[in-house]
Write a structure and sequence with these properties.
The chain is an alpha/beta fold. The protein contains 23 helices and 20 strands. Helices cover about 40% and strands about 15% of the residues. The strands form 5 sheets. Strands 10-9-11-12-14-13 form a 6-stranded parallel sheet, with helices on both faces.
């Protein structure tokens, strides 16, 4: 290899990767060592980012989809001048360090999305590219390319084997996202060994069939010029995303290069010395970056700072030419919602007709579509069931298709739930857009890996999940969610919402939009529900509230969603027998948990029996109730009323359970304290 600064910089990445992983005694050295030339080429010649302003809106986005190779990304952030010091590299994978075991958005500056589970990163990258295309079409004017950044992603064989990646790259090709460029680390190794044992498809033909341009670099270990030429060719193709298939050697330079041994385990101390000697480094020194390499990257940082300065000058001119658009742009980039947007939320009274909450959700989305223009959403081929599209919506489609425009805000995801969720994470991470997506609640777990990452990443993503219980009826147990919301409620940093009527549906969207660092799952009914006496939009901010209050009640009935009306009817039956009943609606149990102790006791008074009602699993309700009316098995196929009757989720049974509970506690002479009362 020619001893140039570029070659030295590449070998610096390789030796640092070996040291960093060995120092942690954990991690993956092979991919960073093999990908060093492509990372060096991307960041030194193409990717425009400014370490002094990591959130510059028009920066190029970089995603390391094979997140196990995160040592590579931390090393690049260090060399570029981001807030990742050499000490941080030495603390790789240590508790609370800036260099955790996989890249985490919000934890380390310069990390765009949280990756690790394979396939998620490239799917996020599709969302990032979609966001750029949509915002560019919305704000760009002739002579004013406000949004024109590229999205780059490095991915490996593992990413390409994951189903979510297949779903997402299919959509990227359909949408003709020409500013999406993926570099495929074709090292033919996974943890189990050679890809010959399980991955022998023709990746090139596969991506070409998706509508991608595919380029090939035969020697990704040494031919830096070929990598650069391929990226230039990719940038020149504006109508197709590009996959650059780069043949590399995993663990390049190691005694075990090309073997699975260098994939998921540190190199031995002797092997690291061998690597350093091979690349002209002192084998006795650790964590070394030659000054000429630091100087090289400092110069690149200066170049990128000038690029941002030029963009800032362009935006200043844009503000004078297009003050209305500029004000909207400034608001969105600041992460602020429009002034007074919440006034558009529909309000309802008990005299209004009974309506399914999925239909009420459509009403809310329609009302918000004009006043919150950053809302962008769609459905996984269930638009007519999820009711996620407002009447004036324009589809996000490439203009050449005649099916929509790039400034459209309705996204047709097709039957791709997992990709939809992962793409929404990318959209949310970009800045300036708030994504929502719809499917049946039972299919939330089809894409749960991405939903979980919404929570880990603190992204404002809204999951519009309809057909939320056994109330969907005839489709039966394959489609009736029982355990799903228990999973969501058990997951940190995600709101689980189940509104009971129109006001609560508006309230759920209020909370979902106000919380910009937390995703929300809104579970919505298929069946019509009455507008309840005492329901309140603003009360939803408390997570749970008293729908009908009583002084010293004999019993409290608590419910969510479609079962609140059942609790109300059960209360009427009990009141006829002279009992005082306090009814409680719990649309967001996670949010109720965050309230003060005094507030919780005002909802669930001490020494008072509590019965919960929910047409989902009873698991978890022991936190709030002494007895539960709900599901302990899977559901059944049949008309809604018959299904509810079969499982005894009725006003009559609820009233009977309440009476039995009251008598039981009278008999034992005490009412046990509930966990939520402590």
């Amino acid at each position: 290899m020619v001893n140039t600064v570029e070659a030295t910089a590449v070998n610096t990445i390789r030796t640092l990767a070996a040291d960093v992983v060995h120092g942690a005694n954990s991690g993956h050295p092979g991919a960073p060592m093999g990908c060093a030339p492509m990372a060096q080429t991307l960041f030194s010649k193409f990717i425009k980012v400014n370490p002094k302003n990591p959130h510059w809106a028009n920066r190029d986005r970089f995603v390391l989809s094979n997140g196990h190779a995160c040592a590579l990304q931390y090393i690049m952030l260090h060399l570029l001048g981001f807030d990742v010091t050499m000490d941080d590299l030495k603390k790789f994978r240590a508790i609370d360090s800036k260099t955790p075991g996989h890249p985490e958005r919000g934890w380390t500056e310069g990390i765009e999305v949280t990756t690790g589970p394979l396939g998620q990163g490239v799917s996020n990258a599709v969302g990032l590219a979609l966001a750029q295309a949509q915002l560019g079409a919305t704000f760009n004017k002739p002579g004013f390319e406000i949004f024109n950044n590229d999205t780059y992603v490095i991915l490996g064989d593992g990413c390409l084997q994951e189903g979510v990646a297949a779903e997402a790259v299919s959509l990227a090709g359909h949408w003709k996202l020409g500013k999406l460029i993926a570099l495929y680390d074709d090292n033919k190794i996974t943890i189990d060994g050679d890809t010959a044992v399980s991955f022998t498809e023709d990746v090139q033909k596969r991506f070409e069939s998706y509508g991608w341009q595919v380029l090939v670099v035969a020697d990704g270990d040494n031919d830096f010029e070929a990598i650069a030429k391929a990226v230039e060719q990719a940038k020149a193709e504006t109508e197709k995303p590009t996959l650059i298939k780069i043949r590399t050697t995993i663990g390049y330079g190691s005694q075990h290069q090309g073997e699975e041994k260098v994939h998921g385990s540190p190199l031995s101390a002797d092997d690291i010395k061998n690597v350093k000697q091979k690349f002209g480094f002192n084998p006795e020194e650790k964590y070394v970056v030659p000054q000429q390499v630091y100087d090289f990257w400092a110069k690149r940082a200066e170049e990128n700072a000038k690029v941002e300065a030029e963009w800032n000058t362009l935006v200043a001119k844009y503000e004078k030419e297009f003050p209305t658009e500029a004000a909207e742009l400034k608001r969105r980039l600041a992460g602020k919602l429009p002034e007074g947007w919440e006034k558009a939320l529909p309000r309802f009274t008990p005299s209004d007709p009974a309506v399914a909450t999925r239909k009420l959700s459509e009403t809310v989305l329609t009302a918000l579509s004009d006043v919150v223009p950053e809302l962008i959403g769609g459905s996984a081929d269930l638009t007519g069931s999820n009711l996620t599209r407002w009447k004036k919506a324009v589809d996000f489609q490439h203009p050449s298709t005649g099916l929509g425009q790039y400034d459209g805000r309705y996204v047709r995801y097709g039957v791709r739930e997992h990709a939809m969720f992962a793409i929404m994470n990318g959209i949310a991470a970009y800045q300036g857009l708030i994504p929502f997506g719809g499917t049946f609640l039972n299919f939330l777990t089809y894409g749960w890996g991405a939903t979980r990452l919404s929570a880990v990443s603190h992204l404002r993503v809204i999951y519009v999940m309809t057909h939320d219980s056994i109330g969907l009826g005839e489709d039966g147990p394959t489609h009736q969610p029982i355990e799903t919301l228990a999973l969501v409620r058990a997951t940190p940093n995600i709101y689980t919402m189940r509104p009971a009527d129109g006001n609560e549906t508006s309230g759920c969207y209020l909370v979902a939009l106000e919380n910009d660092h937390r995703p929300s799952v809104i579970a919505l009914s298929r069946q019509n529900l009455p507008q309840l006496e005492g329901s309140n939009i603003e009360a939803v901010r408390k997570g749970g509230y008293v729908l009908h209050a009583e002084q010293k009640p004999d019993v409290v009935l608590a419910a969510t969603g479609s079962e609140v009306a059942i609790a109300v009817d059960a209360a009427k039956l009990l009141e006829k027998e002279g009992l005082k009943v306090q009814t409680v609606s719990m649309p967001i149990t996670d949010l109720f948990d965050e309230q003060s102790h005094d507030y919780k006791l005002s909802v669930f008074p001490q020494n008072t029996p509590v019965v919960s009602v929910e047409a989902l699993t009873v698991f978890g309700w022991q936190q709030y109730s002494h007895a539960q009316v709900g599901m302990t098995t899977f559901g059944a196929s049949g008309p809604i009323k018959d299904v509810y009757a079969k499982f005894k989720i009725t006003p009559e049974n609820t009233a009977n359970v309440a009476k039995d509970l009251i008598q039981h506690f009278k008999k034992i002479g005490q009412v046990p304290e509930l966990p939520c009362q402590r």
